[in-house]
Amino acid sequence: MEALLPGLVPKIRAALAAGALLCLTAATGSAAAGPVLIRDAEIEATLRRVGDPIFRAAGLSPSGVKIYLIQDPEMNAFVAGGQNIFLHTGMIDRMENLDQLRGVIAHETGHIAGGHLARRDQAMSGGRNMMLIGMLGAAAAGIAGAPDASVAIAAGSQQVATRNLLAYSRGEEAAADQAGARYVSTAGGDPAAVLDVLRILRGQEALMGRDQDPYTRTHPMSSERIMMLENRIAKMPKGKAPDPEDVYWYDRMVTKLRAFTEGPAQTIRANPPVDTSEMATLARAIAYHRQPDTARAAQQMDALLALRPDDPYYIELKGQFLLEGGKAGPAAAAYRRASELAPDQPLILAGLGRALLNTDDPGAAREARDVLSRATRLDRKNSDAYRDLALAEARLGNEGAAALATAERYSGSGTPRDVLRNATRAADLLPVGSPGWRRAQDMITMARRALKK
Questions:
Q1: Is 116 helix (H, G, I), strand (E, B) or coil?
Q2: How many domains does the chain divide into?
């Protein structure tokens, strides 16, 4: 599991600055330098497994909706920058079961399907002038997941315009609740899960104080939203219990997230060695690795692989432990096996490439180049994979290709000057008319346009 700042982060900030953010939150707010996105092949596959039936129920193409995970303990989920759903780790941690997480995703899907981001832009356009400064300040504060608190920034002569904007938000949140319940029901789940989520949020709301102006909130009081939903859900079929396989992968995801984000000692206390269940063993394996206690971590991983010898994500996790423990050769072997079992997982391929580059094998650079090229074709947002690809190309003496990979890395980071510098170098070194040369020319043009803005 990796935490990084990929190219999507500048887009999140841009969406925030434009007010193009709609969220389901109970956060009180805190300063934050910026969102840290977690990338993990298993977790991303599980989120797809949970979300895709909801997207189909909403009439959306699952491949067109992206789910991103932000490392933040606050309860928050939001839509920004188009069909992008962002979940805080704190939101997943506070959900009590799979249906509730599905309800959160369904609510955010309601914003996407309802076109609420576009309507938010229209609502903002009527209240520019003095309101703009206040709303931009509010949006900046909202990056920490605190739109309720950030509303206080918009004051004075901006208040009427602000309230008009927030009236849109209140209606949007209620509409997203209704749509989310419908999507869960259509997907065969229990729509009451959406109500359960709102009740959890209402419990958090009580901690924030009772003297807030309910008119100047980005979404209705949770109690009001619950009342609006109850009658609607009473008329819907209850739905069936979640598929046991879905529950299994959900439990694994939650276990993995908690073990990587909580302190190792806390994890071990919650999962003592007397508990030999698979989830407890997984939690201990990660906790021991983080201490680090490599012998105990390896022992727990062996137990997991005895249960599921062909599980690509357990084998990938073993590779991560080995690589971070300085054993690049065995790590490469583990990642290679994982990639054979899950050949279209770009993060596993990227791990294999990184492991190969850390071995002493002089011939490993060529294999690393090949697998990293495939990884970046499958996932163009992985800046670390582009960094490693550039290193592999440089070791092979392909300076033009290395410069191109570096330009690709920077193209997703919001730094057009770096893109221009490296793309120009790539264009100078690559054969004129080659695919790489044409790609470099495209990036040069895009970088120059970005610098003119």
A1: helix
A2: 1
Residue span of the structural domain in which 21 resides: 2-241
Residue 39 parent element (H or E): strand 37-39
Answer yes or no: is 354 within a domain.
no
Residue type, 64: G
Q: Count the helices and strands in the chain (H runs, E runs).
A: 22, 6
Task: State which amino acid sits at residue 8.
Answer: L
- As a whole number of angstroms, the distance between CA 58 and CA 79 comes to 15
Which whole-number Å values give the CA distances from 388 to 105, 277, 415, in the listed order?
33, 37, 19
Domain assignment present for residue 429? The answer is no
Q: How far apart are CA 221 and CA 215, in angstroms?
A: 9
Residue 7 to residues 83, 408, 414, 423: CA-CA distances in angstroms?
Answer: 16, 10, 7, 17
- Other beta carbons less than 10 A from residue 11's beta carbon: 17
Cα(293)–Cα(176) distance, rounded to whole angstroms?
Answer: 46
Instruction: Provide the whole-model pTM.
Output: 0.82
Q: Provide the pLDDT for residue 239.
A: 83
Helix/strand/coil for 21: strand
Contact criterion met (CB below 8 Å) for 114 and 179: yes
Strands 2-4 and 21-25: unpaired
Tell me if 96 is assigned to some domain. yes
Tell whether 144 is covered by a domain: yes
pLDDT value, residue 210: 52
Q: What confidence tens digit (pLDDT) does each residue in 59-94 have?
A: 999 999 999 999 999 888 988 888 999 999 999 999
Cα four-point dihedral sign 447, 373, 363, 326: positive
- Kindly report the number of other CB atoms within 10 A of residue 44's CB atom: 20
3 state DSSP class of 6: coil
Q: Do residues 75 and 94 touch, judged by C-beta distance below 8 A?
A: yes
What stretches in the chain show pLDDT beneath 70?
Answer: 2-35, 118-168, 170, 204-222
Q: Are 77 and 107 in contact (CB under 8 A)?
A: yes
Tokens of residue 214, six digits: 């309910």
pLDDT given for residue 362 in this prediction: 84
Q: Contacts by 283-286 with C-beta closer than 8 Å and gap 24+?
A: 283/255, 283/258, 283/259, 285/259, 285/317, 285/321, 286/256, 286/259, 286/260, 286/317
How do residues 197-208 score in pLDDT, each as one tens digit?
A: 888 887 765 555
The C-alpha atoms of residue 41 and residue 443 are separated, in whole angstroms, by 28
For residue 27, how far is the Cα from the chain centroid?
18
